[in-house]
Write a structure and sequence with these properties.
By secondary structure, the chain is mostly helical. The chain is built from 18 helices and 4 strands.
């Protein structure tokens, strides 16, 4: 790492092979974590552009109005107001600077949320000048973090150029594994809900006693679809619709059935504003749902807003919701290609509807459980931090 003139360099020649190079870099994950910590502690601006966590905290406040699907699902207090232990975790820093978070900022800017900008690239360009000119403790990057960032960027760029041009690599891929969170269902809801119903009550028994205005929402599935309205909530549901289409392809469902649910990428951005969140996070491989399919999902989400608060604490929530919604969804004309054994209920229709409801309701209930947990008040404690007994909290 040190040249003959005692300067720090990001590559050296291999000691046993002159035709090879060795590249050095700092741990980029910890560099990213340090940048996040500096931003969380300090408020400043670079050439008129504000740089702070205020917008990130505003995203969390706005998303509290969406109990089921949010533009950025995993945003929690550990991201916006990290404590000492949370500051040491790299995963939270990755979430803050992820493609999904950048797309969320773009979405809020598109729909006119005050203060949201897409000038993040300008921040990167001004880091060096700002660090050099700063003479106080409120600077953006510390000297050590800045030097590590510049060193790692130079080393990474030189290494990529060397592998592509000198070693004739065809492509390079990141070695960061993709982590897929497992969707939990009724257990999370039962743990976090307020137990409005006894545990012995079956969800289906509650659904069978719903009022007519609530049931009328499901009747909209049998009518002609209505173009979904604009909004961040619709954009979040549309992204889930693209995930469902991917699942249908993986399960090798009928291609003609799937074609009715999918739209072409080139026309999606021209006609469907609610697909902008999917477009901003797309790095290749995402699917774009048709507006009629999104309209059906919006109708189901509207039904869940009315029903789920009534079934907190009941059993078999996801299973019974699927069984209750499926007969209405089977009557939807766009859910089948018509090649099944019978014209009324073809087998393609049953398999398609079952997969859609499973993949839509499971994350919806899981997200609602997290929503309820976030809305709960903090525990009441004694002076030494010992929590009060639950019965005193309930009956005092």
């Amino acid at each position: 790492m040190w040249s003959p003139d005692n300067k720090l360099v990001h590559f050296i020649e291999h000691p046993h092979d002159e035709n090879r190079l060795l590249f050095f870099s700092f741990d980029y994950t910890h560099i990213l974590k340090n940048i996040r910590n500096l931003q969380a502690d300090r408020q400043f601006d670079i050439c008129g552009y504000p740089v702070s966590f205020d917008l990130l905290r505003r995203v969390q406040v706005i998303q509290k109005n969406y109990p089921f699907f949010r533009p950025y699902r995993n945003l929690t207090d550990k991201h916006t107001n990290p404590n000492t232990l949370d500051r040491m975790k790299v995963r939270f820093a990755y979430d803050v600077y992820s493609d999904e978070m950048i797309a969320t900022f773009e979405l809020f800017k598109k729909y006119g949320a005050e203060g949201f900008t897409n000038e993040g690239q300008n921040y990167l360009e001004k880091w060096k000048d700002h660090t050099v000119k700063t003479r106080n403790s409120q600077g953006f990057l510390s000297k050590e973090t800045y030097e590590a960032l510049i060193f790692t960027c130079k080393s990474t760029a030189a290494c990529v150029r060397y592998l592509l041009q000198e070693r004739k690599f065809n492509s390079l891929e990141s070695n960061v594994p993709i982590k897929i969170d497992k969707e939990t269902t009724a257990n999370l809801l039962k743990e976090s809900a307020s137990r409005q119903l006894p545990q012995s009550v079956r969800t289906l028994n509650v659904l069978n006693r719903l009022e007519k205005p609530t049931l009328a929402i499901l009747d909209e599935l049998t009518k002609s679809p209505v173009y979904p309205g604009k909004g961040t909530g619709t954009a979040a549901i549309a992204r889930v619709g693209g995930f469902i289409i991917r699942c249908l392809y993986e399960r090798e469902q009928c291609n003609k059935c799937i074609e009715k649910l999918e739209t072409i990428h080139e026309t999606s951005q021209q006609k469907c504003d609610f697909l902008c969140l999917t477009f901003e996070t797309d790095r290749g491989g995402l699917f774009y749902p048709h507006w009629s399919f999104v309209s059906r999902l919006v109708t189901i989400e509207k039904f869940l807003r009315k029903v789920v608060p009534l079934i907190q604490g009941a059993t078999h929530i996801v299973k019974d919701l699927v069984e209750f919604i499926r007969p209405h969804f089977l009557k939807c004309e766009s859910m089948s290609c018509g090649e099944g054994p019978t014209p009324d209920f073809p087998i393609h229709n049953k398999e398609l509807v079952q997969c859609i409801l499973d993949k839509f309701l499971s994350p919806a209930i899981s997200n609602y459980a997290n929503y309820i947990s976030g809305m709960e008040k903090p525990k009441i404690t004694f002076k030494k931090g010992k929590p009060l007994v639950r019965k005193y909290r309930n009956f005092s």
